[in-house]
Task: inverse folding
């Protein structure tokens, strides 16, 4: 399918990558700007690691490990085992094959390439036709303020397993950052047909993108509908701390919490069949709702949800309120 206009998708890691996979099967490379969160990126063992960019890359390339939910299929762990023996920092797992990407990226960055250039280079080498666009080429680093003190994102997410209660989230470096060149170009297009917010963690994967100065305003100015796919299904996250954070920081649960979080930004929300009873309440708040099977297990599930979401979004007209 070639859409009548251009689609901008905002995406985090595992949840976002599944819908992104579906979108790439329906839209030509010129028809899609896939903007990926880099707030999770960090420097570790001398390497620059970009977990969401890598998850999207591996998922689109068909290389991701579906059972484990992250990293590469057929991975081996000799490096980690040896690192542990040497007494090295081993709380963040790096597979042997995966390591190559981090080493290569770190080298290319040190040689002066931007993160966008590095990402374009490695995705092309892996045979991807669709561009994967980092949200920014400047470092933006998510920090979770917890009752135990501020934690850099990966310390919160991986080392502490999201256990500490969150009080707030900030994005260090966001104020000084600008959208990457391809993101800027996408936001400036006159033919944007829809903005899709993938079923990613609203606080940890989408908010960092929105925190880049000018992005939220540019999205609000676009004369195109903005639609999110809920990462919350039946009141729960399929993975990770989305439901926990929505409760701790927003005081709400379920798809209502997602809708409240994106209030003023989205025109529509795609919710799962198990949340169908919430659709009317969403509509009362002025958000259009599409009830669709939203658990993506197979490639067909991903493509079907992408198709449903695109049809829903392009069928919406932007609310007058948001045009003003
Ligand atoms: P991360 O960066 O790897 O944590 O991934 P994301 O932020 O992109 O996605 C995490 C969210 O994806 C979680 O809140 C999950 O509930 C959601 N998720 C995972 N798989 C699915 C799915 O098949 N359907 C939907 N709707 N959400 C999903
Ligand atoms: Ca992530």
Result:
């Amino acid at each position: 399918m070639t859409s009548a206009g251009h689609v901008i998708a905002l995406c985090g890691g595992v949840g976002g990558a599944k819908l992104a996979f579906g979108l790439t099967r329906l839209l030509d490379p010129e028809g899609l700007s896939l903007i990926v969160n880099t707030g999770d990126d960090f420097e570790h063992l001398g390497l620059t690691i970009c977990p969401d960019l890598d998850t999207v890359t591996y998922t689109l390339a068909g290389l991701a490990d579906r059972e484990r939910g992250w990293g590469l299929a057929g991975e081996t762990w000799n490096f980690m085992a040896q690192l542990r023996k040497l007494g090295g920092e081993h709380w963040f797992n790096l597979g042997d094959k995966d390591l190559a990407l981090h080493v290569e990226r770190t080298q290319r960055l040190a040689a002066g390439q931007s993160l966008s250039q590095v990402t374009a280079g490695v995705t092309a080498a892996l045979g991807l036709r669709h561009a994967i666009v980092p949200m920014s080429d400047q470092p933006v680093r998510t920090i979770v303020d917890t009752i135990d003190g501020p934690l850099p994102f990966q310390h919160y997410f991986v080392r502490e397993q999201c256990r500490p209660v969150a009080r707030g989230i900030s994005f260090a470096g966001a104020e000084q950052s600008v959208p990457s060149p391809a993101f800027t170009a996408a936001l400036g297009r006159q033919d944007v047909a829809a903005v899709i917010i993938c079923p990613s963690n609203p606080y940890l994967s989408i908010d960092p993108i929105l925190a880049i100065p000018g992005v939220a305003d540019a999205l609000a100015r676009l004369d195109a509908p903005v639609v999110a796919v809920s990462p919350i299904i039946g009141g729960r996250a399929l993975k990770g701390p989305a439901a926990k954070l929505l409760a701790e920081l927003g005081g709400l649960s379920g798809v209502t919490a997602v809708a409240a979080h994106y209030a003023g930004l989205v025109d529509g929300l795609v919710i799962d069949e198990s949340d169908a009873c919430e659709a009317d309440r969403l509509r009362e708040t002025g958000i259009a709702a599409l009830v669709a099977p939203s658990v993506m297990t197979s490639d067909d599930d991903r493509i079907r949800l992408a198709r449903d979401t695109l049809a829903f979004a392009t069928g919406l007209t932007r609310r007058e309120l948001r045009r003003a």
In short: The longest strand covers residues 166-172. The chain has a mean pLDDT of 95. The first helix runs from residue 14 to 26.
